[in-house]
């Protein structure tokens, strides 16, 4: 029994009737929405329940596309070590994945497809903007300079980085539907003069060598077949002396590859997020150095500290049982939309995939075996300088060091009000 003032609730009855409550509640929401209006596709900040689609996938092909997507993996049995069967098909798989999930990401999470720690006296929106603003400061972007957003999604971070720095940002994504969404948001927020999204494979970028003053990636390069492939392209398009900052999805030192439960958790994260594989934090470090970058800093930003009142996975709902309940409720809404043919057939399968991986992402965070934000700061050596010479030069530039995470957070409330949509994240319940 749960009591709140004069209100009490028999939790046993709720548990016994949970399915009926969810279906009934979703059906009621659907009926109310349909009585109000059938919304147009030109939705504003994010799609409503009545505007969910398969993105760039034709409505009649969503179900088959989900089946094809699952078929790209060597195994669907969690705990056996899931990887993509053919690395040359990774780009197609990622394109297919984001065609399926982009609407659900925006609907259930927002325009910024990444995690962040929740800062003191800040809500999640402000904390996520601070996370993005910190990247802008770290890469030293400013007016007259242009940065590359490697794997930009629908452009949430791009708009924050451009807005707080005064610089320009060009984002690249494999998915045409995301380009359309990013362009729409850029125009609506008055940032089309500073922000541009282009379609392309970040393993073969359509940019000239030395085209950018800086680069960053927000939990996006995890989709590359190997990190060396995408890092080498970033290296090529950066000017000498430029900084590249990336947040990587990796396993932590606590991950035990001989532990079946650990492997099963990571397998679910791989399959449910369109990943070809999962790397370790050390492999990510070495990949950057192998292509020529100097490694300036490497640390897991997800680690608890005085600056974070809540860990990143709390954004998913606080605990696994609560997340399961929220996911079941949202899933029932999607199922009703599908039943009423408002959403395409097969979209509930996509939601279930994201829900299942959300549980594993949370469990991986709680167990400390997975992090979505291992921060790596690389620098391309200046012309004529060896990696060792450039590293020694950086060691003497303490006064030019990037600001702390907490310092970036100070500007978050105003930036949030101006640039953010009140959401942000990576998985959908």
Mean pLDDT reading: 77
Shape: globular
Instruction: Let me know the CATH homologous superfamily.
Output: Vaccinia Virus protein VP39
Q: Low-confidence parts lasting 5 or more residues at pLDDT below 50?
A: 1-44, 46-54, 397-429
EC number: 2.1.1.-
GO biological process, one term: methylation
GO molecular function, one term: S-adenosylmethionine-dependent methyltransferase activity
Family: Belongs to the class I-like SAM-binding methyltransferase superfamily. Erg6/SMT family.
What does this structure look like?
Residues 97-381 form the SAM-dependent methyltransferase Erg6/SMT-type domain. It is an enzyme of class 2 (transferase). It is found in: Microsome membrane. This is Methyltransferase. By secondary structure, the protein is of the alpha/beta class. The protein has one domain: Rossmann fold, CATH 3.40.50.150. The chain has 15 helices and ten strands. The chain has helices at 11-16, 18-36, 62-70, 90-108, 124-138, 156-165, 176-188, 227-237, 260-272, 281-290, 320-339, 347-367, 387-395, 405-409, 412-419, and strands at residues 2-4, 7-9, 146-150, 168-173, 195-199, 212-218, 238-251, 279-280, 294-300, 370-379. The strands form two sheets. Strands 3, 4, 5, 6, 7, 8, 9 and 10 form an eight-stranded mixed beta sheet that branches. α9 (260-272) links the parallel β7 and β8. α2 (18-36) packs across α11 and α3 (62-70) packs across α4 (90-108).
């Amino acid at each position: 029994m749960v009591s709140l003032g004069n209100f009490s609730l028999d939790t046993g009855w709720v548990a016994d009737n949970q399915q009926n409550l969810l279906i009934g509640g979703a059906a009621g929401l659907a009926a109310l929405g349909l009585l109000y209006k059938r919304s147009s596709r030109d939705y504003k900040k994010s799609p409503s329940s009545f505007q969910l689609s398969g993105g760039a996938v034709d409505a009649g092909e969503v179900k088959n596309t989900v089946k094809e997507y699952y078929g790209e993996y060597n195994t669907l049995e969690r705990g056996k070590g899931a990887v993509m069967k053919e690395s040359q098909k990774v780009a197609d798989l990622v394109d297919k994945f984001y065609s399926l999930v982009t609407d659900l990401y925006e609907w259930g999470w927002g325009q910024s497809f990444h995690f962040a720690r929740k800062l003191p006296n800040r809500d999640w929106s402000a904390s996520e903007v601070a996370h993005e603003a910190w990247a802008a400061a770290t890469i030293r972007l400013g007016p007259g300079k242009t940065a590359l957003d490697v794997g930009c999604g629908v452009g949430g971070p791009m708009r924050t980085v451009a807005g707080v720095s005064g610089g320009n940002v060009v984002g690249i994504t494999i998915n045409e539907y995301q380009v359309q969404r990013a362009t729409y948001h850029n125009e609506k927020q008055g940032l089309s003069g500073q922000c541009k999204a282009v379609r392309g494979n970040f393993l073969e970028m359509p940019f000239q060598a030395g085209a950018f003053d800086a680069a960053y990636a927000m939990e996006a390069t995890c989709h590359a077949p190997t990190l060396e492939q995408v890092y080498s392209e970033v290296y090529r398009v950066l000017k000498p002396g430029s900084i590249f900052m990336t947040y990587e999805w990796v396993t932590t030192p606590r991950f035990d590859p001989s532990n079946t439960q650990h492997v099963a958790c990571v397998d679910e994260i791989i399959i449910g997020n369109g990943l070809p594989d999962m790397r370790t934090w050390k492999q990510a470090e070495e990949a950057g150095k192998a292509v020529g970058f100097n490694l300036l800093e490497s640390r897991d930003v997800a680690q608890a500290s005085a600056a974070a009142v809540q860990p990143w996975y709390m954004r998913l709902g606080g605990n696994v049982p609560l997340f399961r309940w929220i996911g079941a409720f949202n899933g029932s809404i999607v199922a009703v939309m599908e039943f009423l043919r408002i959403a395409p057939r097969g979209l509930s399968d996509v939601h279930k995939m994201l829900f299942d991986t959300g549980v594993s992402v949370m469990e991986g965070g709680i167990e400390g075996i997975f992090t979505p934000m291992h921060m790596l700061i690389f620098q391309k050596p200046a012309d004529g300088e060896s990696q060792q010479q450039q590293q020694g030069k950086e060691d003497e530039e303490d006064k030019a060091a990037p600001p702390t995470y907490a310092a970036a957070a100070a500007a978050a409330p105003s930036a949030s009000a101006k640039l953010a949509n009140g959401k942000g994240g990576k998985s959908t319940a």
